[in-house]
Amino acid sequence: MKSILKNISLVAMAVAVLSMTGCEATKNANNKQKGAVIGATGGAILGAIIGNNVGSGNNSELGAVIGGVVGGGAGVLIGAKMDKQAQEISQEIPGAKVERVDDGIVVTFDENSGVYFDTNKSNINAASKATLDKLAKVMVEYPQTNIIVAGHTDSAGQDAYNMTLSEKRANAVSDYLVVDGISRGRLTTVYYGETQPVASNDTPEGRAQNRRVTLGILPNAEMKEEAIQQSNGGQ
């Protein structure tokens, strides 16, 4: 029987400010992801990108990539830019789930929303290419954002196989976005196999939701610094 990973709520993350758990609840095969601390203010968008177990130590560098939420006037300026970008993505890709979370945007693609993979395959099919082309068209217009690409699977099959499959699918999406003109330096790719379900794996509908690729679109340091300067009157 596959082990059931314990959910760690976002409320708990908020209480444990700048803390992280020591457990290895997920196996993120990106070995660079360790050593940093997840700020509580980044917990909401982190949870939206990953799903469960946002407090895993293996997610610490991802939390650092996300960073904290910018407040005050600078946060308002950043929010306006991200609102505009989210609206454009929604217009270009009506089937995608587009959410504004904290300072970022979370775009979720499952088998019903434009980016999907054939069973046991990781190549980008024609329909998925068309969707990613539309997404990249918007993202090229906003170079001051970084993108996290997270791959997930359902629980069918062996754990290790699913982890590798999610890795291949996340990398396939990232590689295609680079072909579409997105700088490699803007992309962070992570993968979680079956460990981060958002729905029950006991039904076909739930498994379809769990077979997903989630993108987190975040303001980069340049956008944040520019917003802070503007909010301070250009000083």
Summarize the structure.
Helices cover 41% and strands 13% of the residues. With 235 residues, it is α+β, with helices and mostly antiparallel strands.
The percent range for strand residues is 5-15%
Average of pLDDT: 78
Helix/strand-derived category reads alpha+beta
* CATH fold naming of the largest domain: 60s Ribosomal Protein L30, Chain: A
What is the N-to-C succession of helices and strands?
Answer: HHHHEEHEHEHEH
- Shape annotation: globular
Second-tier CATH architecture of the largest domain: 2-Layer Sandwich
In CATH terms, the superfamily of the largest domain is: OmpA-like domain
Write a concise keyword list for the protein shown above:
235 residues, 8 helices, 13% strand, 2 domains, five-stranded mixed beta sheet, alpha+beta, 60s Ribosomal Protein L30, Chain: A
Protein model, in words:
This protein has 235 residues and is of the alpha+beta class. It has 2 domains: 10-66, no CATH class; 72-231, 2-Layer Sandwich (60s Ribosomal Protein L30, Chain: A). The chain is 41% helix and 13% strand. It has helices at residues 10-15, 43-50, 60-66, 72-92, 126-140, 159-179, 204-210, 221-231, and strands at residues 97-101, 104-109, 145-151, 187-191, 213-219. It has a 5-stranded mixed sheet with strand order 1-2-5-3-4, with helices on both faces. The longest helix has 21 residues, at 72-92.
Give the SSE map.
Blueprint: H1 10-15, H2 43-50, H3 60-66, H4 72-92, E1 97-101, E2 104-109, H5 126-140, E3 145-151, H6 159-179, E4 187-191, H7 204-210, E5 213-219, H8 221-231
Parallel strand pairs: 3-4
Antiparallel strand pairs: 1-2, 2-5, 3-5
Helix pairs in contact: 4-5, 4-8
